[in-house]
Model the fold of this input.
Amino acid sequence: MPDMSYNLSQGAKDLLFKVRQIVPPLLEKFHKGQLGRVAVIGGSANYTGAPYFSAIASARLGADLSHVICTTPAAAVIKTYSPNLMVHPLLRESTHPHPSEASDIAQTVAALIPNLHSLVIGPGLGRDPLMQATVACIIKAARQANLPLVLDADALWLLQNQPDLVRGYKECILTPNVVEFARLAKAVGLETSDDGEKGCSELASALGGVLIVRKGVQDWICDGTKSFVGDLEGGRKRSGGQGDTLTGCIATMLAWRRLYLEHGWETEGDMSREETLMVAAWGGSAITRECSRQAFLKWGRSMQANDLTSEVGGAFERLVGEKE
Done:
């Protein structure tokens, strides 16, 4: 059962009730893979931690299968971090790629899409021209398959140059920080200094209803018509990598959302696709903030991103809990 002993706003309590509705019970009838097949695309020569933090958060929250799709040099490193992740060295970096190279690599990656419930793109991706071009092709393939996406970090760098890649795609979640948000707003012609609900909603509308999770002191979650606020207490240390935990948690929530929408068990309520997308994003935010709070209580200003990883399971138990 969840621990409700500490102070939560009424809005947070109401949203946690909805989060519990989309979390599947651990039933004997479920087989391996039904409770989440998630992949993270990222990981390059210079960045190996970010995709690991995202994928391991997905696994720690409860996804059955968690994949990392990265470059060969990154794969050799990430495989040493954990035997629980499946690591695929399919990406390549090149400053002068052949015109067909990106599409060829993307076709290999896209072959995995039918087996996935959600896809994170961006952690540790970098800005290499071939990597960016490959990801653009993968986003198009994911849209065609209607696969839920979570885009962060250098995937957002790609979008500031090609916002039409996601414009109007209602199965897409962007998770910008304050700097990334400003770049995206400028890219779509918005001049907003609002750092709250209004600015977040304006960007979501400008992108045709794409869901925005604007990270900050409060996490604003907006699709252009509705808004949720993630106002649970978090830690006060802003070490790099915490946003990667967020993307992994949201990805697992999206996988569970799919099973909920398919009535994979005797579900409660009748939430729409649009509402469940926002609930999944808010749930990922809430769990990440609770991870940060607990890690900060233990480690203070020495807290690092890997300290959040070990808190994911406990955060879930305290906020959501298992169905009886």
